[in-house]
């Protein structure tokens, strides 16, 4: 009995020691590698989203943002054309009449040289850099333009055509419009901001010629409401296409902020007793960034006015009104600053 009991004691102890060793071995094995890995404290890593352009280079995703202020100072070159014809609804219609029916005083005006000048435009969108609210596209546009040049005047009447006379003239325009723009992302490789928008407000256009007794030609002075639609689409990283089209509502001649009812009244009374007018405008150009807040803006602009007169005018042959057409063609090249 003693021998049998003595044999069982070592056997149980051995199994107990083996079980403890087996349990301790994995803990020791795991604690060794963990002790060799240093623990590092520091700021969390930032996540940067990049796009692969396919040439092995990664480009950061740039969404861009509309600016709350944009200033545009441009050199301008403007050409003006003007014609007036009695008894018809268009200058071209008068030329198509039989020669014996082309009766009355007519006027043709063309710029022998462009009117060189300056244009200043200011756009303010106070909420542009806020959140993505629909109000961020609400703003104001102000503009002023003035050019100077000499022009050739030719008058044709029943007595024949007068010699070409050179006169000095100025072209002046002011704009004050409220605007709204809806911004959208354009492009896939490097999306940028484009927009569609609308403008509405007040504009003036004044063409002044020198006052002289031997200069029967009068200028035109217009004050009128206008509406327009705008589109700006980025083409490349530093080039965007800008387009605009607008309506000039009742831009009657003979009106200006400081109209004196004298010489400017002749803009209507020479041709008839009343006038109805209509006009349109168009613009196409490119713009982009140069460095930092500075950029460029190049555009070609058109503005066309058509005045339909009725009643008897003081000029010969204008017993039943007629028509006058006026067109401004302008090239703008300027520098911009955006903030």
Protein described:
This protein has helices spanning 2-35, 91-95, 266-269, and strands spanning 50-52, 58-60, 69-86, 106-110, 115-124, 138-157, 160-161, 165-186, 192-209, 220-236, 239-249, 274-291, 294-310, 322-338. It has one domain (69-338): OPCA outer membrane adhesin/invasin (Lipocalin, Beta Barrel). The model is unreliable at 1-17 and 26-64 (pLDDT under 50). It is elongated and about 65 Å long. The chain is mainly beta. The strands form two sheets. Strands 3, 4, 5, 6, 7, 8, 9, 10, 11, 12, 13 and 14 form a twelve-stranded antiparallel beta sheet that branches. Keywords: Signal. Residues 1-24 form the signal peptide.
Question: What are the salient characteristics of this protein?
Answer:
single chain, 339 residues, Lipocalin, twelve-stranded antiparallel β-sheet, 53% strand, elongated, signal
Radius of gyration: 39 Å
Helical proportion, percent range: 10-25%
CATH architecture: Beta Barrel
Please outline the major beta sheet: 12 strands, antiparallel
CATH topology: Lipocalin
Q: Label the structural class.
A: mainly beta
* Tally of helical runs: 3
Shape, per Cα inertia axes: elongated
Overall pLDDT score: 80
The separation of the N and C termini measures 103 Å
Give the class-level CATH name: Mainly Beta
How many β-strands, per DSSP?
Answer: 14
Low-confidence stretches: 1-17, 26-64
CATH superfamily: OPCA outer membrane adhesin/invasin
Succession of helices and strands:
HEEEHEEEEEEEEHEEE
Strand content: over 45%
Structural domain count? 1
